[in-house]
Design a protein that fits this description.
With 250 residues, this protein is an alpha/beta fold. 42% of the residues lie in helices and 16% in strands. The protein is built from 11 helices and 8 strands. It has a 4-stranded parallel beta sheet, sandwiched between helices. It has a 4-stranded parallel beta sheet with strand order 6-5-7-8, sandwiched between helices. α6 packs across α11.
């Protein structure tokens, strides 16, 4: 096998919360052939505390210059901000400002997970969604408000029956996520949104689409889909839900 088969076509940099164990494996599964993944980890929160809107807002506001400067050493073509709730907790204006500021520091375009979910909904023409996440209710409320500001109405939602810690969120199985998505779904929803980069949604996404007959958007699927235009790669080179059959995505 030649070296260009596994690398050389493009580089994706990713900022990963330090307790997150699922974003990097998902990106490795979804990355087009020849695209390599290069990660830097983010601190700024208590791993033993339940991640609520205060903790996630704190992560979103934490200093990025150090991790970005190290990540820039890999000369990525695009950088992914790999926490959905850290910018959901603040709102769309904060999300866009963070992406612009990070891009200036790193010298590469930056795609956020939260922004990618919105872009995915727009690409699919979706305005009413069922929302599923491992978030505590107060953080899920922030996420729903974020989507509403972007013109996306949450018509039904589901979350865990008990508050989950950082490591407990990452330990949810694909079967758990499938059940969560089914519980969130409703007749009024045009699509299902699975929000959290540390939730194993990618592995159940196709099955959930088949079971519900609706498109399903997941944080890790949406963020790498949004990265493809920066790599000059067509979405049909990757297979992960209806979102990858939409060629246009801003």
């Amino acid at each position: 096998m030649s070296g260009t088969a596994t690398r050389g076509r493009g580089r994706i940099g990713v900022l990963v919360p330090f307790t997150n164990v699922n974003l990097e494996p998902d990106l490795a599964m979804l990355a087009p052939r020849g695209v390599s993944i290069h990660a830097a980890r983010l601190g700024g929160y208590d791993e033993d505390a339940v991640p609520d809107e205060v903790q996630m807002a704190g992560l979103g506001a934490s200093e990025l210059a150090g991790p970005l400067q190290l990540l820039a050493g890999a000369r990525p073509d695009v950088i992914l901000y790999g926490c959905t709730s850290a910018t959901l907790a603040h709102g769309p204006a904060f999300d866009r400002a963070l992406a612009e500021r990070a891009a200036e520091i790193a010298g590469a375009p930056v795609v956020t997970a939260a922004g990618a979910l919105v872009a995915g909904c727009r690409a699919l023409g979706v305005r009413r969604v069922a929302f599923a996440s491992p978030y505590v209710p107060s953080l899920a409320d922030r996420a729903v408000a974020y989507l509403a500001q972007e013109g996306i109405e949450t018509v039904s939602r589901a979350g865990p029956e008990t508050d989950l810690g950082n490591h407990e969120q990452g330990a949810l199985t694909p079967s758990d996520v499938f059940a969560l998505g089914r519980r969130a779904d409703s007749a009024e929803a045009e699509a299902i949104v699975l929000s959290c980069t540390d939730m194993r949604a990618v592995e159940t996404l196709d099955a959930l689409e088949e079971a519900t007959g609706k498109p399903v958007l997941a944080s890790n699927q949406a963020v790498i889909r949004a990265a493809l235009p920066h790599l000059g790669i067509a979405p049909d080179k990757v297979r992960c839900g209806r979102l990858f059959r939409e060629r246009a995505m801003a």
